[in-house]
Amino acid sequence: MHVIILAGGSGSRLWPISREFYPKQLLKLTDNTSLLQATFERISSFVEPSKIILSTNVELAANVKIQLNKKVIEENVLSEPVSKDTAPAIACSMKFVEKLAKNNDEIVLVVPSDHIIKNISKFADCMKNAENLAKKGYIVTFGVPPVIADTGYGYIETIEDKDVEKINNKAFKVKQFTEKPDKKLAEDYIKSGSHFWNSGMFMFKISTFKEQMSKYMPEIESVLSEIDFDKTTDIPFMSYDKMPNISIDYALMEKSDNIVMLPLESDWKDLGSWEAIYDVKEKDTHGNAIAGKVIAKKCKNSLIFGNSKLVSAIGVNNLVVVETSDAVLVCDKNKTHEVKDVYNDLKKTNNDLYMVHKTVYRPWGYYKCIEQGEGFLTKIIHLSPRQQLSYQMHNHRSEHWVVLSGKAKILLEDKEYVLNPGQSIDIPLKAKHSLQNPFFDDLEIIEVQLGDKLIEEDIIRFKDIYGRENK
Q1: What is the DSSP letter of 253?
Q2: Three-class SS string for 241-256?
Q3: What beta strand segments (E) does 315-345 contain?
Q4: Is the Cβ–Cβ distance between 132 and 167 less than 8 Å?
Q5: What is the pTM of this model?
Q6: How confident is the model over 352-398, as pLDDT tens digits?
Q7: Which pLDDT band, with edges at 50, 70 and 90, does 313 fall under?
Q8: Cis? peptide before 16, omega within 30° of 0
């Protein structure tokens, strides 16, 4: 079996913690492991790491690789040059799998990277049980028995089918999919006994997917012919940009009559909203889930998350309160699916708060913006041991660096410098330079940028150990 892990989403419903350049799958939301790391460990418990493919985007690829810390084969991380939803991402990944597979009868499992599943052995058993259905030419999806009329999930309506039951007596034929119904319809689905939550996981033979794609997604198939993974694992922008922006549900699953559903016999939680986060968090005696710097008095059934500042709450009930260094979310716990509307409003107005935190994580560490004004920007840069920034230059800004702690190695044009705490250096406009930490202690510096364009796009990379050089 090969497995495709989808790791390119933006996690808009978990704003303000989740941002486009550091979304929920990279975050440690429930324990000391990110959702992506937990997904990879779960899959690698029954599939060889060499057969696991990560589908992400160019902005996240470096962080995906460093989070998995060489557990995944670097060439198996595919980066969309532009986001086009799940149908193009899966189709492109399937073409890459074809190169790895011995024949087109091999099985492929597609899973999201934002689920919590703790009973890994039951999950693995369910995936293995699904293989016989996939080998018979079906597309297999996995349904979760619903416990409440949740309007944040898609639903799968099933019917009994004797031919399907002969292969697996727990499986059903899929009648139709419904995307996020209203409350009354969701309640009717619960009463029917024939509806399941859509887990967003699929399994099929390579040949089955190719046949179904040719039938229902010819516009995607035609673009795929322009992508040649025998020459490079880079996905060309000019080709991929022609792809339609469409999910696999709309492109294929809602059209095909060749789909069966197997109940997922394992615990499962999709962390798609703050209400879902509340559900999995440990509660106090008043039903509050509290994390970070928080003082709560006479509060009930609320999620209160303090990050950079002290959050004090008195007498609130059924609320979600989430604080970051640059944004605060307060909403009714029953309306957390609407957080994506705030995210989309920020995106429409080009407000960077949908995209990045004041603290921005990079493969080498992170930086924090502490002050910005007309013509200047001040950051604290934290460089982890044995890491380095790219060898780069800027066309629109000069920089001044002051070492706060640790020891800095600096390449400036053809010279090398080693600076200790309290020492500083100027980086002139258009000078090639690199900040490095080849030592064993963390390095922190203050960076003051001066110029007319203080943007991340004003970085021209010549050499980069994380593969981000300008093409």
Answers
A1: I
A2: CCCCCCCHHHHHHCCC
A3: 319-323, 328-332
A4: yes
A5: 0.84
A6: 899 888 888 888 998 988 888 889 999 999 999 999 999 999 999 99
A7: very high
A8: yes
